[in-house]
Design a protein that fits this description.
Low-confidence stretches of chain A: none
CATH superfamily of the largest domain in chain B: Thiamin diphosphate (ThDP)-binding fold, Pyr/PP domains
Mean pLDDT of chain B: 96
Number of strands of chain A: 9
Helix content of chain B: 25-40%
Oligomer: heterodimer
Helix content of chain A: 25-40%
CATH class of the largest domain in chain B: Alpha Beta
Mean pLDDT of chain A: 94
Distance between the termini of chain B: 61 Å
Radius of gyration of chain A: 18 Å
Radius of gyration of chain B: 24 Å
Largest interface: A-B, 19 and 19 residues
Shape of chain B: globular
Number of strands of chain B: 20
Order of helices and strands of chain A: EHEEHEEHEEHEE
Strand content of chain A: 35-45%
Chain lengths: ~160, ~550
C-alpha cells in the first residue's frame, strides 16, 4: 500500500542525506521524495511516498521521528490530502499533430511551454494518477523525455502539519 | 576573543571532563596545543579505535558522556568501529575529530575523509563545524544529545582552520532543540494497565536490558521485582543488574544464555521487557513468543517499541521514572510456585569435566569471581571468553562491561583502561581470548604508561574458538581460518616485555594460587590460562 508522509525538518546541510540514508539502511522502499523550504526558512518540508504495510509505515514514522533534525512527521490519510506532482514532457510533434496534441492538453489541463520544429514540451501538474492517464494519451506521438518533481501533499481543510 | 581550539578545551572543562582518550595528528594539533595548558588528563592510546572503546568504558562507569579524540582521515576512520560499538550499546561518547582546512574540503587532500558521512548510520548525531562562532553551542548540544534520551555517540568534526579562528567564548547554559524532546515519564494510564496485567499474571517474567543500567535504575528494578515477586532474566547488556545469587535472578537468556532463563521465557505468561530491545541473540523468535505471551515493553526509544516484537502494552520513558511509578502501583503477589519451578532448574549442579593439563574456563570464572570484591568491574571481550564470563562469573553488585550489540573483538582491554580511569579504586578485571587479545594488545603500553592496575585474564585455546565451534556444529567441523597457534606469541613474555607481571597456568590448582596473586597485585597483571582447543561455550 502507498503512504504519503510529510516531514518537517531543520533546514541544515546534510539533513536530506540523513533522511535518505535512513530509508536505504532500514530497507524502506520509497516511490518519490520532494523537498523544499517552507514559509519559515529555517525549516524544510519533505514529502515521501512510500510502499509498505502498516507495520512498516509505523516503524518508518518512528525512525524518522528519532532523527534529531526531524521536527514533525505526519502520515497523511489518502482521503484527507491534496497531492500534486509536476511533470515536464518533451514529445514528438510535427506540424500535422500539433492541433490534436493541443486538444488533449486542453482537456487534461496541461500547458504547452516550449516548441521546436519537431517537438513540443508540455507542463502538467496534477495527481500521480492523472499524470499517468495523460502519459497514456500522448504516448502514441512519441515521448522523447520526461522529468517529474515527485509528489508534494498538503492536508485538506484548515488543518496543518503542525496541528 | 580566544582561539576556537582553546574554546574546545574550555567546553570540555565546562562539561566537567577530567580525562580524554586520544591520538594526535596534524589536523587536530591546534586543539592538542591548547589541551597542554589544561588540567584535563589526556590518555594516549595506541590505536584510535581504542580511544573510543576506552571512552566507552569510562562513560559506562561514570554514567556521563566521555570524550575521545582523533585526527582527520585514517585517525577518524579508525574510530568508526568504536563509534558503531557505542551506538549498538547506547553508550554516551563524544568523539572529536580533526578535519582538513575548510577551503580544502572536497578536494581529496592528504588525510581527508568525509567522516560525518561515513559515521552517519551509527551516530546519534554529528556535526561538521563550518562556522567557528557556533562551536560552543555545538559542544553543548553534543554532550546533551549524547547523555540524554537513548544515549549514544555524537561526533564533532572540526576543520583545522576553524580551530585556529578567534571567537568570543560564551558557553551556553541550556540547549534549545525544538526537534529533540525525549519522553522521560511514563504515561499514567499505561502504568495502571501494566499493574493490572501483572495482577492477573500467574507466571510473569522481567527481562532486563542495558537500558536499566543506562538509566541508573538497578536498585529500582530490584525493589520492583522484590515487591511484585517477579523472577528476572537478563540480556547480556543487563548482566550485573541483579546479583547472580539473588533468588529472583534466573540468568542470561538467549542463544548463549542459560537453561533457567530460556525455560522461564518459554513458560512465562507475561513478559515485562525493560530497557531491552529484543535483539536476535536474546530472543530468536519474538513473533512466536508474542503469540502465547502478553508483552509489556518499556523503553526510552519509541522506535524500539514494536520494532522486533509485537507489544500489548507499551510505555515510553526513562525506566528509572517508570519503575518508580510501577513500585508505587504494583501489588505484591505470591508467586512461590513459579519461582520455585525455575529455581529448581537454576540450582541443578552442573556436570563439569576437567581436561588434564588445561583450565576449565567455566570453573575458573566461578573461582575467580569468588575471590573478587563485590564492586569489581568485570569486562569481557567477544567470543567464547565472553559467554564463559556471562554465565559463570558471579556478579555481586559490581559492573559488567562488554560489547553486546556489535560484538566487537578487541573491546575489553581498552574499555578496562577507561573503566579503571573512571573508578581507580575498583578492581578491574578483563577477560579475553587469544584471538581478541591480539586485536588490543597494543594497549598494554597505555596500561603501563598510565600505571593502571588492570587485571587481564587471557583464555588461550589457540583457536578463534567461537567460530571454530560454529564450524564444528554447523559446517561439518570444516575448520578453516581459526587456528592461530602457529602465530601466537609467548603472551607471558610479551606482557613481561612491557614490564607487566604475567604468568601462565595449566591446572586448576595453579590457577587458584595465581588468582590470589592476581587479586592482591597493586599493578597490572596478565594471567594466561591454557584452555583445551575443543572446549565448548555452553
Amino acid at each position: 500500500m502507498k503512504h504519503t508522509i510529510s516531514i518537517l525538518v531543520e533546514n541544515h546541510a546534510g539533513v536530506l542525506s540523513r533522511i535518505s540514508g535512513l530509508f536505504s539502511r532500514r530497507g524502506f522502499n520509497i516511490d518519490s521524495l520532494a523537498v523544499g523550504e517552507t514559509d519559515d526558512p529555517a525549516m524544510s518540508r519533505i514529502t515521501i511516498v512510500a510502499d509498505g504495510d502498516e507495520h512498516t509505515v509505523e516503524q518508518l514514522e518512528k525512525q524518522l521521528n528519532k532523527l534529531i533534525d526531524t521536527i514533525k512527521v505526519k502520515a497523511l490519510a489518502p482521503e484527507e490530502l491534496l497531492s500534486r506532482e509536476l511533470q515536464l514532457i518533451k514529445i514528438n510533434a510535427a506540424a500535422p499533430q500539433r492541433s490534436e496534441i493541443l486538444t488533449i492538453c486542453e482537456i487534461m489541463g496541461a500547458k504547452i511551454v516550449d516548441i521546436s520544429a519537431s517537438t513540443m514540451t508540455i507542463e502538467i501538474s496534477d495527481t500521480t494518477a492523472h499524470l499517468a492517464r495523460f502519459e497514456e494519451l500522448i504516448k502514441p506521438y512519441g515521448i522523447k523525455e520526461i522529468v517529474r518533481t515527485g509528489v508534494i501533499a498538503i492536508q485538506k481543510g484548515a488543518d496543518t502539519i503542525k496541528k | 576573543m580566544i582561539k576556537a581550539a582553546e574554546a574546545m578545551v574550555k567546553c570540555l572543562e565546562k562539561e566537567g571532563i577530567k580525562v580524554v582518550f586520544g591520538y594526535p595528528g596534524a589536523a587536530i594539533c591546534p586543539f592538542y596545543d591548547e589541551l597542554a595548558h589544561s588540567d584535563i588528563h589526556h590518555v594516549l592510546v595506541r590505536h584510535e579505535a581504542n580511544a573510543g572503546h576506552a571512552a566507552s568504558g569510562y562513560a559506562r562507569i561514570s554514567g556521563k558522556p566521555a570524550v575521545c579524540i582523533a585526527t582527520s582521515g585514517p585517525g577518524a576512520t579508525n574510530l568508526l568501529t568504536a563509534i558503531a560499538t557505542a551506538y549498538a550499546d547506547s553508550i554516551p561518547i563524544v568523539c572529536i575529530t580533526g578535519q582538513v582546512s575548510t577551503d580544502q574540503i572536497g578536494c581529496d587532500v592528504f588525510q581527508e575523509v568525509d567522516i560525518t558521512g561515513a559515521a552517519e548510520p551509527f551516530v546519534k548525531y554529528s556535526y561538521l563545524i563550518k562556522d567557528a562562532a557556533e562551536l560552543p553551542r555545538i559542544f553543548k548540544e553534543a554532550f546533551y544529545l549524547a547523555g540524554t534520551g537513548r544515549k549514544g555517540p555524537v561526533l564533532i568534526d572540526v576543520p583545522v582552520d576553524i580551530q585556529q579562528t578567534m571567537i568570543d567564548f560564551n558557553y551556553p547554559e541550556a540547549v534549545e532543540l525544538r526537534s529533540y524532546k525525549p519522553t522521560v515519564k511514563g504515561n499514567a494510564l499505561q502504568i495502571k494497565r501494566v499493574c493490572e496485567a501483572l495482577k492477573n499474571a500467574e507466571r510473569p517474567l522481567i527481562c532486563a536490558g542495558g537500558g536499566v543500567i543506562n538509566s541508573d535504575a538497578c536498585s529500582e528494578l530490584r525493589e520492583f521485582a522484590e515487591k511484585a515477586n517477579i523472577p528476572v532474566v537478563s540480556t547480556m547488556m543487563g548482566l550485573g543488574i541483579f546479583p547472580t545469587k539473588h533468588p529472583l535472578n534466573m540468568g542470561m537468556l538467549g542463544m548463549h544464555g542459560v537453561k533457567t532463563a530460556n525455560e522461564a521465557v518459554s513458560k512465562c505468561d507475561t513478559m515485562l521487557l525493560i530497557g531491552a530491545r529484543v535483539g536476535d541473540r536474546a530472543v530468536r523468535s519474538p513473533k512466536f513468543l508474542a503469540e502465547t505471551t502478553k508483552i509489556i515493553h518499556i523503553d526510552i526509544d519509541p522506535a524500539e517499541i514494536g520494532k522486533n516484537i509485537p507489544v500489548d502494552i507499551p510505555i515510553v520513558g526513562d525506566c528509572k521514572n517508570i519503575l518508580g511509578q510501577l513500585i508505587a502501583g504494583v501489588e505484591s503477589a505470591d508467586r512461590s510456585a513459579w519461582i520455585s519451578e525455575l529455581s529448581e532448574i537454576k540450582n541443578a549442579v552442573p556436570v563439569e569435566n576437567e581436561t588434564e593439563g588445561y583450565i576449565n574456563p567455566k570453573m575458573f570464572m566461578r573461582k575467580l569471581s569468588a575471590k573478587l570484591p563485590e564492586n569489581t568491574i568485570c569486562v569481557a571481550d567477544v567470543g567464547q571468553n565472553q559467554i564463559w564470563t556471562c554465565n559463570n562469573f558471579e556478579f555481586k553488585g559490581g559492573r559488567f562491561l562488554t560489547s553486546g550489540g556489535m560484538g566487537t573483538m578487541g573491546y575489553s582491554v581498552p574499555a578496562a583502561v577507561g573503566a579503571k580511569m573512571a573508578s581507580p579504586d575498583s578492581q578491574v578485571v578483563t577477560v579475553c581470548g587469544d584471538g581478541s587479545f591480539q586485536m588490543e594488545m597494543m594497549e598494554l603500553a597505555t596500561i603501563v604508561q598510565e600505571k593502571l592496575a588492570v587485571k587481564i585474564i587471557l583464555m588461550r585455546n589457540n583457536r578463534l574458538g567461537m567460530v571454530r565451534e560454529l564450524q564444528t556444529n554447523n559446517y561439518g567441523d570444516n575448520q578453516i581460518a581459526v587456528h592461530i597457534a602457529d602465530g601466537n606469541p609467548d603472551f607471558v613474555a610479551l606482557a613481561q616485555s612491557y614490564g607487566i607481571r604475567a604468568e601462565r597456568v595449566c591446572t586448576m590448582d595453579e590457577a587458584e594460587a595465581a588468582i590470589e596473586r592476581l587479586c592482591a597485585a597493586d599493578e597490572p597483571y596478565l594471567l594466561e590460562c591454557n584452555v583445551w582447543r575443543n572446549e565448548t561455550t555452553l
